[in-house]
Amino acid sequence: MMKTFIPKNPGTARSWQLVDATDKPLGRLAVNIANTLRGKNRPTFDPAVDMGDFVIVVNAEKIRLTGRKVEQKEYQRYSGWRGGLKTFTAKTMLEKHPDRVILEAVWGMLPKNTISRKMMTRIRVYRGSEHPHVAQAPVASSY
After folding, report:
1. CB of 99 within 8 A of CB of 58?
2. Distance in angstroms (rounded) separating the CA atoms of residues 80 and 2
3. Tens digits of per-residue pLDDT, 23-54?
4. What pairs with residue 25 in β-bridges?
5. Res 24: pLDDT
6. Most exposed of 38, 114, 123, 124 (fewest Cβ within 10 Å)?
7. 65-93 tens-digit pLDDT
8. Strand 74-78 vs strand 85-89: parallel, antiparallel, or unpaired?
């Protein structure tokens, strides 16, 4: 008799992955982080179950944008008021908030549902190489 395996939410058994963003292309790094947050690196992946790991990204200011994206790529924020649409180039975003560049890219790679909003709470992005998550014993990932 065959039994169907239904994966469960790992709860507190999630691992912590440490990613160094130095000289990594933004899109390739974002898709790898999104796959780790979703749990696609596990053999028991189920899109309806939140099975992903925690991800810590360090050296966010050293991320690489290919081509002319530094001058041409634009980010938008809307305050909700009339005339409240602000646009920023990737160059100014990398200078002021390099962590938001990575967060926006990862958010674009995840499906838009309630599970992905929960997944985004498990990513931590830091400008430099220091992070306060040493106690969680993060494992350096290969991407």
Report:
1. no
2. 54
3. 999 999 999 999 999 999 888 899 999 999 99
4. 64
5. 96
6. 114
7. 999 999 999 999 999 999 999 999 999 99
8. antiparallel
The CATH class that applies to domain 15-65+98-140 reads: alpha beta
Question: Cα–Cα distance between 24 and 22 in angstroms, integer?
Answer: 6
Measured between alpha carbons, how far apart are the two ends of the chain, in Å? 41
Query: How far is the C-alpha of 120 from the C-alpha of 111, rounded, in Å?
Result: 11
- Report which of 98, 119, 114 is spatially closest to residue 37, judged by C-alpha positions: 119
pTM above 0.85, yes or no: yes
Task: Count the neighbouring beta carbons within 10 Å of the beta carbon of residue 96.
Answer: 10
Is 88 exposed, middle or buried, given 0-12, 13-18 or 19+ CB atoms closer than 10 A?
A: middle
According to DSSP, the residues that pair with 19 across neighbouring strands are 57
Q: Nearest Cα to 8, choosing from 55, 35, 45?
A: 45
Give the residue among 107, 22, 100 at the shortest CA–CA distance from 58.
22
- The helix/strand count (H/E) of the chain reads as 5, 6
What is the residue extent of each domain of the chain?
A: 15-65+98-140
